[in-house]
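Page 37, continued from 36.
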């Protein structure tokens, strides 16, 4: 069976940068956040941090804390037919447990870490969906308290420290035995 690498980390840590690198290595790509974006559009809402939060929490109320894993498994299974998969944006402990039970040793968790102030700076200056420092801090607290995000980060098979430039981050990634 092909393998899955699930990326986990707080907003602005660098998950998308790592995902792009894996895509260039011919990994099939799935994006947990795509579930939120699709649902925001289905509901006819404006895409912003507030509506995204509402949708994330509504989906978890409807499907449980493992909602995103349950909803993304069919896409992962389909992509696994064509090769290895990079799964961008694992959130909750429940999602981790569901994916680990289903894929067992074929699933590796890769955490990307950057300190809060650095992440807030990145998030406020990014071109797509920028958010203020205050909103980023609030989102951090919501994700840790309401979305069980700390568990998958703590249980990661590998952790990258994203405090330098892109070359530093990619060098760390290349040294991993995935």
């Amino acid at each position: 069976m092909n393998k899955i690498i699930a990326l986990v980390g707080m907003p602005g840590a660098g998950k998308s940068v790592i995902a792009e690198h894996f895509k260039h290595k011919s990994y099939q790509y799935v994006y947990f956040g795509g579930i939120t974006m699709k649902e925001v559009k289905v509901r006819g809402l404006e895409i912003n941090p507030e509506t995204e939060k509402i949708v994330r929490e509504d989906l978890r109320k409807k499907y449980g804390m493992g909602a995103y894993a349950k909803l993304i498994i069919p896409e992962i299974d389909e992509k696994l037919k064509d090769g290895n998969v990079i799964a961008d944006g694992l959130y909750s402990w429940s999602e981790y447990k569901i994916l680990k039970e289903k894929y067992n040793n074929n699933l590796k968790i890769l955490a990307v870490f950057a300190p809060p102030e650095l992440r807030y700076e990145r998030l406020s200056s990014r071109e797509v969906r920028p958010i203020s420092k205050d909103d980023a801090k609030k989102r951090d607290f919501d994700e840790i308290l309401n979305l069980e995000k700390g568990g998958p980060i703590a249980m990661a098979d590998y952790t990258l420290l994203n405090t330098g430039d892109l070359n530093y981050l990619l060098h760390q990634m290349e040294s991993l035995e995935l």
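The mean pLDDT is 94. Flag for discussion at group meeting. The CA atoms of residues 148 and 167 lie 31 Å apart.
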